[in-house]
């Protein structure tokens, strides 16, 4: 696919992400990612990233939208696949008759912006996960076990342990992960085959919205300026992206091993 497909609309969409990130993807990573022999790892890790994003959002819903004694009422990720299109207001889970003491689980949920945004994100990430699996199946790429990169773990190591600082930090990290994903989809798209190029371009809108949603939620939970923490995690993220990395993954740093 020609780079012209990243038209003015997407250039406008990517501009704030480029401003948000403290560095662009190093050319060495892009050069490695373009190699045909790296495609299987790229697709498997992409699938893993989509599932991990859904799981992380699910964890936030459980921890911050339900009282501790009611968390067991919220089911696993399969539940979100069965939800109808999201309503505009907070009655996200009310259509499902998951009973606990004869009350729907939604009756126990706080009707807040975190719930609405995270459920939407979970649904989209699970859909993307299924799309990647379909592409892998068509190309006979096995969904093998793949070790995680140091990327997310490296940033989560800096999360503060008290609230609301902990959730603010996790939300800021979520913003950086989504922003980096969006940036890399855009970087890769012009160099991939037609199907993958179109697929990666199709993901740009949702990933860009996810990063904005995470930042908005972080600001809401903080109740004060988060500029200092955003800058701090931006520095951590850029350091991980620019440092030599022995593993090649979707969010890895500069490849140190060919």
- Topology, number of strands: 4
Overall outline: globular
Report mean pLDDT, rounded to a whole number. 84
Q: Classify the beta-strand content into a percent band.
A: under 5%
- The CATH homologous superfamily corresponds to Ferritin, core subunit, four-helix bundle
What is the level 1 CATH name?
A: Mainly Alpha
GO biological process, one term: tRNA modification
GO molecular function: tRNA 2-(methylsulfanyl)-N(6)-isopentenyladenosine(37) hydroxylase activity
Protein name: tRNA-(Ms[2]io[6]A)-hydroxylase
List the helices and strands and how they pair.
Layout (H helix, E strand, L loop, with lengths): L7 H13 L6 H7 L5 H27 L12 H4 L17 E2 L2 E2 L8 H26 L12 H6 L8 H24 L5 H9 L1 H19 L4 H16 L1 E2 L8 E2 L3
Helix pairs in contact: 1-7, 1-9, 3-5, 5-9, 7-9, 7-10
Would you kindly provide a written description of the structure presented here, covering whatever features stand out?
InterPro entries: Ferritin-like, Ferritin-like_SF, tRNA-Hydrxlase_MiaE. One of its GO terms (molecular function) is tRNA 2-(methylsulfanyl)-N(6)-isopentenyladenosine(37) hydroxylase activity. One of its GO terms (biological process) is tRNA modification. This protein has 258 residues and is mainly alpha-helical. It has a single domain, classed as Ferritin, core subunit, four-helix bundle (Ferritin). The chain is 59% helix and 3% strand. The strands form two sheets. Strands 1-2 form a two-stranded antiparallel ribbon. The chain has a two-stranded parallel sheet with strand order 3-4. β1 and β2 (103-104) form a beta hairpin. α5 runs antiparallel to α9.
